[in-house]
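Contributing new records

If you add data, match the layout below exactly. Sequence lines come first and carry their own label; structure lines follow with theirs. Keep one chain per record. Anything else will be rejected by the validation script.
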Amino acid sequence: MPKQATRNLIRGVRSVAGLGLVAATTWIAFDEIHANALITGFAYVLIVLIVAARWGLIESLLTSVAAMLCLNYFFLPPVGSLTIADPQNWVALFAFMVTAVTASQLSASARSRAAEAQARRVEVEQLYQISLSLLRMDATRSPGLQIAEKLKDQLGFQSVMFCDSLSGEVFTAGNENTIVCLDALRAAANGDAVWRTTRRAVTDSAEYVIFPVAFGQALFGSICVVGATISDTALQALANLAASALERNRQQIALGRFEVARENERLRGVLLDALAHEFLTPLTSIKSAISTVRTEYSHDEEENEFLTVIEEESDKLGEMINETTDMARIEPGHPRIRRRRTHVAALIRSAAQHLKNLLRGRTLLIDIPEGIPELEADPEMVELAIRQLIGNAIKYSPPETAIEVRATCTEGFIEVQVRDHGAGVRDDEIESIFERFYRGKRVKEAVAGTGMGLSIARDIVKAHGGAMWAANAADGGGCFFFTLPVVPPESKS
């Protein structure tokens, strides 16, 4: 039987019971004890108050009308008639009716407020229990399904559905036959303007409510509860609790991924250190053997050329191993630096010397003014950053063009610029090129690389308190800039 029909039946039974109380009081007062109109009127008022306090306003109003008619018919002259002979009795009857109705309204209002207070208290207790259960969600199961199950179990809904705004997946807990709102549920999860607030609807089988689940401006999805007997305030609280649980779940997932990434970076550093050490040992033996062969034995010109190639390639491999060792000291965003005073000119020239094989046949223009202040930095790390920028310019510019390196001092910072005459950087990639493993869209297939060099260089510069950025020159080519603070005047000897 539908709930409304059940409520009407209960109200009808209570109304009949109220009329029965009036009839019983009338019989006792009229036939048994022969009470006067005043005493009987007080008895009727008492019955009306009891009915209002126990059942409600409608039942008490019906009881009041019945009591007024009985008082008039049985106790006010002429008895046995609904007419009133004495005008004073009209006043008494009117006073009785007003008193009964007012008392009914006041009693029903107090009863309604008490019922509402009790309902709010129960809702608060239920919300508290739900908040505790959402804090203990199982990380191995879908949070959307767990939210639906917990709301259904603890609030007694017929069914609860949660629609994830990202995947569009719908999780259902309860009786699937009561699913009546999938289209509206998905519309709310997608941010449809019609469903941005709580919406109630009634079908032939049940009442359902749909409300969005959002945390700030982030929309996580929407919830539909079927068989709802809960206030809008409580529903909003449920939405906030569900949103908080989903936000916390996503943060935990992100934190877990961050921890995994950090552990991978740590293992990468250990591996690079180990590989660098294992490579250096045989390389040292190779270089020692070449020196011995050169000094202890005579060779013709062709053999000397071969030995020269071996020496140069061994030096190149040694430089690569040293650079790998330096990279092993760099965690994403947190290079381990060891500061000491140094000159930027020496670092630029040392970086060029390390890249001499790559620069063979290229023009490198270095412009550093005299008297430029010293830096307080990690020389190996800053030189590595400079090598990354020069190496990047070598890879992305034609062989016949020059590479320019300039250093200037302004406002307590030394600014270094590395410019090439290549194709430059796309405007929509100016920031992206500094991300780890990012490769430019138009060069990633044509030029070999890992996409780590610029990220490493920026991490090094940031760790020194500087900044790095990129721009395109007006006449073509890419320009990369970074700043480093000079030695503070008070620390100079």
